[in-house]
Design a protein that fits this description.
Elements (H helix, E strand, L loop, with lengths): L16 E8 L5 E7 L4 E5 L16 E5 L11 E5 L10 H15 L35
Antiparallel strand pairs: 1-2, 1-5, 3-4
């Protein structure tokens, strides 16, 4: 697994689900494979952690360790992990704020406090990375 898990799990893996995906089409249709039993994997903490010695739950990186006597990761399959996190970061607020400001100036009325009501016909918001890809913020005409 090249990318570690971005958030610390809230607990052990008892409430988590690890699934294999056999295929995904260009349209996003997923062919699901097996659900890996929770007894076959656990969260591991730290770069040297193993299934037998999973490390301390405050060490980074957080990874998935499999019980090597039962299974190994198949590089031809995608894996989906769903779990509850502890202390997640609030991300994407800037993207949402820019989207909402553009929408306000384009569509809100003077009664809503929009001093530009009725005058904005197009809105363009430019950004880099994720802030430049938000839906509804590209140029369009009214």
């Amino acid at each position: 697994m090249g990318n570690p898990i971005p958030y610390f799990p809230a607990a052990d893996n008892s409430g988590a689900t690890l699934k294999e995906h056999l295929n995904e089409t260009i349209n996003g249709v997923v062919t699901e494979g097996a659900t890996i039993p929770n007894s076959d994997w656990k969260f591991c903490y730290g770069a040297t952690a193993t299934f037998a010695l999973p490390g301390t739950p405050t060490s980074l990186p957080v990874r998935i360790c499999l019980d090597g006597s039962k299974r190994s990761f198949d590089s031809a399959k995608l894996h989906q992990l769903v779990y509850t996190v502890k202390d997640p970061y609030a991300l994407g607020a800037g993207t949402a704020a820019f989207r909402d400001v553009a929408s306000f100036f384009r569509y809100a009325s003077a009664a809503d406090g929009n001093l530009l009501a009725g005058t904005v016909q197009k809105a363009i918001i430019r950004g880099s990375s994720q802030s430049g890809t938000s839906r509804g913020t590209s140029s369009s005409s009214a």
